[in-house]
Amino acid sequence: PPLRSTQSAAGMEYCAPENQYRVARPIYSHPALEREGERLTRTEKTLKQRLSDKCGSCSRNRALKTFKGVFPVFDWLPRYPIREWLSGDIISGISIGLVCSLQGLAYGLLVSVSPVYGLYSAFFPLLTYFLLGTSRHISVGPFPVTCLMVGSMVLTLAPEDHFLLPANGTSAGNVSDAGVRSLVDTEAMEARRIVVASTMTVLVGIIQVAMGLLQVGFLVRYLSDPLVGGFTTAAACHVLVSQLKTVLSVPTNNHSGPFSIFYTLSDVVVNIRHSNMADVVAGLLTIAVVMVVKEINARFQHRIPVPIPIEVIVVRSVPRNIHYVLYGPSCMALCLTVSRPPSFAPPGAPDTALFPELLGASVSTAVVAYAVAVSVAKVYAAKHDYTIDGNQELLAFGVSNVFCGCFSSFVASTALSRTAIQESTGGRSQVAGVLSALIVMVVILALGQLLEPLQKSVLAAIVIANLKGMFLQVTQVPKLWRQSPADCFIWLSTCGACVVLGLDVGLLVGLLFQLGTVVVRTQFPACSTLGNIPGTNLYRDLKDYKHISEIPGIKIFRCSSPVYFANVDYFKDRLRAAVGFDAVRVFKKRSKALKKIHKLIRKGQLKATETGLVLAEDQSPGMENKGFQSDHDDGGRDYRVDVPVDWTAELPVKVSVPRVDIHSLVLDFSAVSFLDVVAVNRLRLVIKEFLRIGVTVYVTSCHGTEIII
């Protein structure tokens, strides 16, 4: 088809056939750009200058902007569209308030404290996040993973063994499981566990505030999606096992650390005969009902204006009905119950003496809580077209956790299920969060008696039913394997390490493995030889296309990774394999051949002509040609002579010189983001090696500041 040619303002000519386009433009490398004074000199500001720019001048507008940055609520609340958003926020707030109340009660079991303290964790963080948070859609409150991480430290520092009471002179080691449970000072144990949980929450908040002030929110980027997916799936396994003993109502020992999940499973299997039938039936029925109704809520969310509050329904109806059916109206006392809180717990200071023991677990918990919350917040921010400030989120969650810890609460984060409900029911801002906090407050102060009796097996079953989304992450593994085996191995290794070694150690192992894969992928980068697609100016990998060929005498080599000290030797090996010869060996063989040729010329057996080397016929054998001297005869180390030698033809000496079929080598550095000093020095030697054997080296597509090689 005929070409349609157009000329742009930039001097680019576009010749377009019906389905093809050819673009021609001037090369931007112009001598004028290389003249002295054309290049700008980059100057980096010192730390003092940066601080002076930020703090040196203070105006009313700047102070107001800083204030709104710290308290975003004063930025968006005056512009809150009441008519458009308020009705949706009210419906969403009521729905989330009911869900938060029941999930808070259930997640209290994961922290190994009375479930009533979960209500505090569902109330206090909503207030502070309303003032400091930048996400409009996430539902702040307890999260199963962080609750389990806090609970593991609670069991480590306040196990039941520390609160046993002597009975009739019998040592605690000789009492049965049932007897041991009756000899525990539950009030002292509960008080100590609350101190441990609230102290760890305060420490987590301090760590998050410190990270926010230091502007190190970017560190959470090292927690990739495969790593977080494997970690949360493993955490779901730990949550399932920890709640299984409550659903079955079997006595187990408290285990923490590596292999604790297997020890707990062993105790459950050994003591399964002691299970309570009423709790088993109530738990299994709750799991089935909650999962079915949640699936209905998800599938018909556009038809159901408000999700069915199934948690409230099952907590209110299942315990009474199950016990009435199994035991009759006179046996309600068999149910394991907890009492509701009469009011809010008074504030209290954390036990700072526990900080050294809680520091390691608090760091991992702080990072996980923030990573989960920010990842969920970014999903909904992208969906609704607004931005999230990562460092401000650190400050918001840090202050929330410090505030919560002072009121006997535990670590706050968010959960995808609650956030999905808040968004699907019409929630547009954190006004829905404040309204849900009001619902939780009403439950704490007035409606708690309607939920009695609170059966622990039902609460544990609610926790298990809400793990469905985490377990469904396993379905991502085949897709990850097809897309990137390395990411699939990160998912599997993190999940396996967290299941076997525990969440804190497993997270560290998964992070190290992930960083190891990055090092391995850069240490052994993908290198390829490029060929030309006939009839085009496109160059592609020879292994990817059939009808593709190299330009005779030219080798184009591409490296798809930074070149630095760890992979420069691998780069040299791949380059040697691509060109098909070792430049150093070629040079040595040529030097050896030239040495012998030099001797033959001196003896008169060879004669150098313009066309090459020929056998001498007019000179007797053995007579030396004393008029011939090599250009460089320095003790036998360099025997280059100023004679034409065709290295592709057969040589007159018995030396096997590797064949060199190229005259030019092009190094495509378009995918090389940086070169360190070691790589530059090694590449300089490589280029010299090729130049010594007559191969010209061209380095193309260098990015950033040029490095003279």
Automatic annotation (TrEMBL):
SUPFAM superfamilies: SpoIIaa-like (SSF52091). It is a multi-pass membrane protein. Residues 544-709 form the STAS domain. PANTHER family: SULFATE TRANSPORTER. The keyword Zinc does not apply. InterPro entries: S04_transporter_CS (IPR018045), SLC26A/SulP_dom (IPR011547), SLC26A/SulP_fam (IPR001902), STAS_dom (IPR002645), STAS_dom_sf (IPR036513). GO terms for molecular function: secondary active sulfate transmembrane transporter activity. This is Solute carrier family 26 member 4. GO terms for cellular component: membrane. Pfam families: STAS (PF01740), Sulfate_transp (PF00916). Keywords: Membrane, Transmembrane, Transmembrane helix. It comes from the Eukaryota. It is found in: Membrane. The chain crosses the membrane at residues 90-110, 116-133, 194-220, 275-293, 322-339, 359-382, 394-412, 432-451, 458-477, 489-513.
